[in-house]
């Protein structure tokens, strides 16, 4: 940390500068690190608290709300979530007695997120390629309209979408949840178009000369070359789809199509008379958050580095 | 509507300042991907999860936060059950979830600023504060403008957190626009009225974006 940004200056001045800055910024640096650590603590504390609560019994949570370790260790919360606890035990522990089937919700969430991701990657990459390379009349106008679509708040399209899905008879169906975002989002098209535009034209022209069709070029040349941005977009889309709440809340009513986020809201509303089943609820939130945490820890570098302005101007 | 505006002001104000601070600290201190990952982690959980965890931490009787308040001699606060506290609390929950993401956006912007300008300023003997206000902030303007436009649009559409924690109550204190629209459409089945309100929201957002774009001159940069 001795000499940040001081390159290519003569030694004497460098020493002089570092000395001065050392005296000046050291307390500031320490302060900044302290602030950073506080930020990290604020960020991580709720996650720890989730775990701590999930592994406690409800009775002990009431008795010792301030204990930093689980006051009385128990996996009852998780057992209730996965339905492996008998009704009597659940009542005894002050837990929510429900017939909620979290495996089913995990399955539904997975189906929805996978459908949305697969659909978006396929259709958006095709559309993005068309906008980036193919020449047709009014291309830029159509693209402009797409970009304007980025600005439209989701609630604006929500009611029309709901009516449409209802007319299609897809209410309370996983397909109905996935459909509105499955076909395309303006963001994905915009994001991919930027990458496609940077692929050198010569490669495509060479392939065209070799007699490969446009569609062949798209699948054999463009897609492999854009594997990295496609993967990034895929991960981000998967997370967004997994975490969505508003839309699934509107179109799913029964276990048949209920996804995890909606199930959590209902689990919270179904509290027993003795008070909220916090242990069970926190266990459920952990279950809902865990897949994304795993996904993130696997791809952290890629996700973190994808956030930036390289796509946006 | 007033509730929504109050929420947006609180949420955006605190979030932007926090994010800017985190971004600056990260920029100056470390490039560690791990730290960036940690800062981003709240963004990965859904709004519902974030809302539930904070609902538990801030619970009036059992929440750890109120427990701490009491142990240092303060009174317990019904963060989500008190009319005056509910909106600021929800705003802060969403700050917690989004500040890391916003910080990373600003951080990415900071890295595009040329080092040469800073060297020149240091050679001229400018202090840290001076450098921040006279160089970093003005150069960051286009990026900040984009970040603000994006976060404000998002902030106006707050729904998940409110729906899970308070559901619009107590006494309509957290009845933000989107909750109201949802209630209109699916609680009272007035689809026409609800649609009209969402069109209204769209127009408001359009106007806000346009004004911001003009005011902040988001399309231009001072780097040239």
UniProtKB/TrEMBL annotation, chain A:
Region (Disordered): 1-23
Domain ABC transmembrane type-1: 106-299
Gene Ontology terms describing biological process: transmembrane transport
Positions of transmembrane segments: 30-51, 105-131, 143-165, 177-196, 217-241, 278-300
Subcellular location: Cell membrane
A Pfam family the protein falls into: BPD_transp_1
Coiled coil: none
CDD domains, per the entry: TM_PBP2 (cd06261)
Membrane topology qualifier: Multi-pass membrane protein
Any single Gene Ontology cellular-component annotation: plasma membrane
Swiss-Prot/TrEMBL keywords: Cell membrane, Membrane, Transmembrane, Transmembrane helix, Transport
SUPFAM superfamilies per the UniProt record, alphabetical: MetI-like
Primary location group: membrane
UniProt family annotation: Belongs to the binding-protein-dependent transport system permease family.
Descriptive protein name: Sugar ABC transporter permease
């Amino acid at each position: 940390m001795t000499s940040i940004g001081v390159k290519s200056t003569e030694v004497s001045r460098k020493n002089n500068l570092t000395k001065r800055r050392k005296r000046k910024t050291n307390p500031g640096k320490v302060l900044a690190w302290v602030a950073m650590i506080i930020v990290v603590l604020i960020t991580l504390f709720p996650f720890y608290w989730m775990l701590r609560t999930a592994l406690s019994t409800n009775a002990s949570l009431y008795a010792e709300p301030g204990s930093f370790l689980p006051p009385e260790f128990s996996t009852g919360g998780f057992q209730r979530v996965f339905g492996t606890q008998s009704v009597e035990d659940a009542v005894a522990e002050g837990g929510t007695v429900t017939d909620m089937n979290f495996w089913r919700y995990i399955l539904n969430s997975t189906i929805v997120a996978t459908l949305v991701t697969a659909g978006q990657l396929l259709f958006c990459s095709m559309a993005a390629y068309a906008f980036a390379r193919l020449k047709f009349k009014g291309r830029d106008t159509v693209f402009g309209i797409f970009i304007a679509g980025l600005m439209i708040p989701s609630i604006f399209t929500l009611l029309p979408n709901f009516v449409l899905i209802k007319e299609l008879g897809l209410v309370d169906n996983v397909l109905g949840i996935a459909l509105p975002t499955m076909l395309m989002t303006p963001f994905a098209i915009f994001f991919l178009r930027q990458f496609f535009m940077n692929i050198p034209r010569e490669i495509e022209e060479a392939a065209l000369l070799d007699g490969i069709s446009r569609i062949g070029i798209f699948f054999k040349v463009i897609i492999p070359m854009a594997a990295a941005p496609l993967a990034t977009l895929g991960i981000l889309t998967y997370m967004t789809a997994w975490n969505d709440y508003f839309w699934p809340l509107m179109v799913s009513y029964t276990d048949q199509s209920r996804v995890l986020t909606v199930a959590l809201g209902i689990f919270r509303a179904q509290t027993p008379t003795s008070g909220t089943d916090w242990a069970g609820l926190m266990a459920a939130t952990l279950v809902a958050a865990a897949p994304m945490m795993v996904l993130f820890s696997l791809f952290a570098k890629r996700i973190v580095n994808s956030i930036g302005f390289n796509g946006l101007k | 509507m007033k509730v929504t505006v109050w929420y947006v002001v609180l949420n955006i104000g605190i979030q932007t300042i926090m994010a800017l601070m985190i971004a600056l600290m990260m920029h100056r201190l470390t490039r560690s991907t791990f730290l960036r990952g940690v800062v981003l982690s709240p963004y990965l959980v859904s709004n519902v999860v974030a809302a539930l965890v904070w609902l538990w931490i801030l619970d009036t009787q059992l929440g750890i936060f109120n427990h701490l308040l009491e142990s240092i001699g303060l009174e317990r606060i019904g963060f989500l059950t008190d009319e005056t506290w509910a909106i600021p609390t929800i705003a802060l929950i969403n700050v917690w979830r989004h500040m890391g993401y916003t910080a990373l956006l600003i951080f990415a912007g900071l890295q595009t600023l040329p080092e040469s300008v800073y060297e020149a300023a240091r050679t001229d003997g400018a202090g840290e504060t001076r450098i921040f206000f006279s160089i970093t902030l003005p150069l960051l303007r286009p990026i900040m403008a984009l970040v603000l436009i994006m976060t404000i649009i998002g902030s106006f559409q707050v729904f998940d957190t409110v729906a899970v924690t308070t559901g619009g109550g107590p006494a309509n204190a957290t009845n933000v626009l989107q909750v109201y629209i949802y209630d209109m459409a699916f609680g009272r089945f007035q689809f026409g009225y609800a649609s009209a309100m969402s069109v209204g929201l769209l127009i408001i957002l359009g106007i806000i974006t346009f004004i911001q774009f003009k005011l902040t001159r988001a399309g231009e940069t001072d780097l040239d």
